[in-house]
Design a protein that fits this description.
The protein is an alpha+beta fold. Helix content is 19%, strand content 38%. The protein binds zinc ion (ZN).
């Protein structure tokens, strides 16, 4: 019987894509082409365009025949956004989870994949390990017709973004918003409203996006994470987030749409 499961190949954090006129697409491989090296890890990713799809980790080769090419995750996500964004994120995070949970954190014995799900289990103490997702908040703070934009020292020149941070244990998302805003810029906010969410594989986040209204305080860079933060109107913007696919950019574009 022919193999009807499509394969998405990964090697050293690069995705195998097919070059087409206006960008890239996932090649339609149902069996490994002869020039690919032996598969190391295979995981089912679910359904894609009506067919089952697996992610397969291989070790190369570095050079592949035209029109195929290895593309690093970030540019691959940019090129395949939004249709294949979540699929690539899932593939990437499943592979890193699989590689990073080979041994039990409790007793040190080797773990094994359980069934076909995203689950590894310790052969000795039976502890289960699932892919890790780290929730993070990102918030667009509005003050009349202005938005708070900020930059970290490691951002590319002229790139600005929004206040963001990881959810801590025992915290609600709204509490994280209030804490991060207070810690990073010393402001109080109100009317915290959920907008959207996006998986983000750098390294394993789920970004949960909010808007909030300014409620008090003066901008004060408190914890050293930011090198600049200020209020901007839509016609007076510094540089925007470098990635047009990020949820940060969507929140800023929403603000511009409303105020320009
Ligand atoms: Zn164990």
């Amino acid at each position: 019987m022919p193999n009807t499961t499509q394969k998405l190949y990964y090697s050293h954090n690069n995705v195998l894509l097919e070059k087409i006129d206006d960008g890239y697409r996932i090649p339609k491989f149902f069996a490994a082409p002869a020039w690919l090296k032996k598969p190391q890890i295979t995981h089912p990713l679910g359904m894609h365009e009506g067919a089952a799809i697996d992610v397969v980790e291989v070790t190369g080769p570095k050079d592949v025949p035209h029109p195929y090419t290895w593309v690093a995750l970030r540019p691959a996500l940019e090129a395949l956004y939004p249709q294949l964004f979540n699929l690539l994120v899932r593939a990437h995070q499943i592979l890193s989870w699989d590689k990073n949970h080979r041994y039990c954190g409790h007793c040190g014995v080797e773990t094994k994949v359980n069934g076909s799900g995203f689950e590894r289990q310790c052969a000795s103490c039976h502890l289960l390990f699932y892919p890790r997702i780290s929730p993070s908040i990102i918030v667009a703070i509005h003050k009349d017709n202005q938005i708070l934009l900020a930059r970290k020292a490691n951002f590319l020149p002229n790139v600005y973004g929004l206040i963001a941070g990881f959810v801590e244990v025992g915290e609600s998302l709204e509490e994280t918003v209030h804490r991060e805003v207070s810690e990073e810029v010393g402001l109080q906010v109100k009317n915290v409203q959920y907008v959207d969410s996006q998986p983000w594989p750098f390294p394993d986040s789920l970004m949960i996006a909010f808007t909030a209204d300014y409620a008090g305080g003066e901008i004060e860079l408190r914890d050293g994470e930011l090198e600049a933060a200020a209020w901007y109107t839509a016609d007076n913007f510094p540089g925007l987030p470098s990635s047009s696919i990020s949820i940060s950019r969507k929140l800023i574009d929403d603000f511009i749409g409303k105020h320009r």
